[in-house]
């Protein structure tokens, strides 16, 4: 089972950019479906984006065209490039791993805070 550690969060002005990273331990990273989720204060956790083991990518409508998910299997790392950030993107961002394609996410990172000032 992988272990996940997020980094790259911070404070940015609206319209700015950030890149989040999710470093995974373990030798089977390349076989996992990986995802990004976020949780804003007082709200439920919501799906942001996912990338399959073969590289297919999927996005929530709210971030489509602004965020890009990618992975580097040689570095056991997944990324989330966030551009044109909005105040409503403010949240704790979590990366997650799913060992079975189409299955649930069974491993989660500790989260990294992203704050967008308007």
Textual characterization of the structure:
The protein is mainly beta and 118 residues long. The chain contains no helices and eleven strands. The chain has strands spanning 4-7, 10-13, 18-24, 33-39, 46-51, 57-59, 67-72, 77-82, 91-98, 107-108, 112-117. It is globular and about 40 Å long.
What percentage of amino acids are in beta strands? over 45%
Backbone shape = globular
What is the distance, rounded to the nearest whole angstrom, between the alpha carbons of the first and last residues?
A: 39 Å
**Beta strands, count:** 11
* SSE string, helices as H and strands as E: EEEEEEEEEEE
- Computed over alpha carbons, the radius of gyration is 13 Å
Helix-strand category? mainly beta
Low-confidence stretches: none
What profile does the largest beta sheet have? Answer: 7 strands, mixed
What count of helical segments does DSSP give? 0
How would you summarize the topology of this molecule?
Layout: E1 4-7, E2 10-13, E3 18-24, E4 33-39, E5 46-51, E6 57-59, E7 67-72, E8 77-82, E9 91-98, E10 107-108, E11 112-117
Parallel strand pairs: 2-11
Antiparallel strand pairs: 1-3, 3-8, 4-5, 4-9, 5-6, 7-8, 9-10, 9-11
């Amino acid at each position: 089972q992988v272990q996940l550690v997020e980094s790259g969060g911070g404070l940015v002005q609206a319209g700015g950019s950030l890149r989040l990273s999710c470093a995974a331990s373990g030798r089977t990273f390349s076989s996992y479906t990986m995802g990004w989720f976020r949780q804003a204060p007082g709200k439920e956790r919501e799906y942001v984006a996912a990338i399959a083991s073969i590289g297919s990518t999927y996005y929530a409508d709210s971030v489509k065209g602004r965020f890009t998910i990618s992975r580097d299997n040689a570095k056991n790392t997944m990324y989330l490039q966030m551009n044109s950030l909005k105040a409503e993107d403010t949240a704790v961002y979590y990366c997650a791993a799913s060992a079975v394609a189409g299955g649930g996410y069974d491993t989660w990172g500790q989260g990294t805070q992203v704050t967008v000032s308007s």
